[in-house]
Give the backbone structure.
Amino acid sequence: MNAESLPANPFFAAPEQRVALARQRFFEDGLRPSGMVNEAVLQSWSRCLHGRLDPDKPAEFEPVTPSRVHSVLRASRELLDAASHELDRLRVTLAGTTSTAMLTDAQGVIVGSTFTQARSHERLMPVTTRIGVNLAEEAVGTTAPGITARTAQSSVVLGGEHFFGNVQVMHCAAAPIRDVRGRLAGVLDLSSEGVPFGFDAASVVAHYAAEIENRLLAAQSTEHLVVRMQISTVLLDTPMAALLGITGHGRIDWMNGAAARLLGTGTTAAGGLALPVEDHLGLPLAALLALATSDGPHPLRLPNGLTLWLRLEWHARDGRQRLHAVPAPAMPVSAPPAPPATLREAERQAVVRVLGECGGNVSKAARALGVSRGRVYRLLRDGAA
């Protein structure tokens, strides 16, 4: 069915017909077909037209200059290290599908791919998956990796929603990967040529992008107490884990999106936060360091009332992760604490103070206080609850 014969009411048309009608109204009639295609796609179409791209001309998937490829690969070393395991897993996950995974830098230049050999129906895929190909919006128009590189938001672009006609055989879904400063570090994309996704591609790419992001955040953390937390211990080693990094001054320096949602600070990961850790986790740094010296996850009730399971480890500047050699926290000058309301609170304050003096070493603090290590842990946990 051509564009002229499409029904006026898009709500009764098939998805392909609806997109065709939306393209007619947008590109030929100069009308904004709101509600007929995703708003992110409409905004991308508008940016492409403002950039003087012609939808009637074919997109050219060309690599950037050799010098820029080398520069991009050097700058993406941490991202590639964090993604190497997940790209291997994606090859297995996607082996029975028509989909290929691509990893780009923050500007949309491909730095990694799971593509190995073209299938019989694929013409674009061998070209679009090459290292160094620029998938940025200004280079190849509306695509999922191009939108995500531009907006740092997840996106899905299917068939006719692509700006250029020769790219409308593609179906793609992309998710952002952020670094320890909260900046876009890269984009993970799943693409299929000529065959629509037979699964929820947006969920799959989000799952793997979150795991890559968590690996990158942990790798970029130096002199941080890295906290993994979730509502269940079985989620601590999954892409659903909430991560945050705490400095030696007792400030939350960064957190991923899952942590931001659990702590109620927002839905976007960010870096350079400098949030007081006690305000958000309910324990001072010394008490958290004490928990880091013991094995296993620990339950903790947050100030917002939610009880989570935590696992903590100290990330040193040399890249090593230590559980039993955490440094003494930097103790900022502050006003004297309010008098404890109960004897138990007085005991807890004494434990926290001695823990700080002992560099977070629970055994040493227990000996100094003349109590058992178990007593120290119970006081800390009861105080958190």
Observations:
- Residues 1-6, 323-336 have pLDDT under 50 and may be disordered.
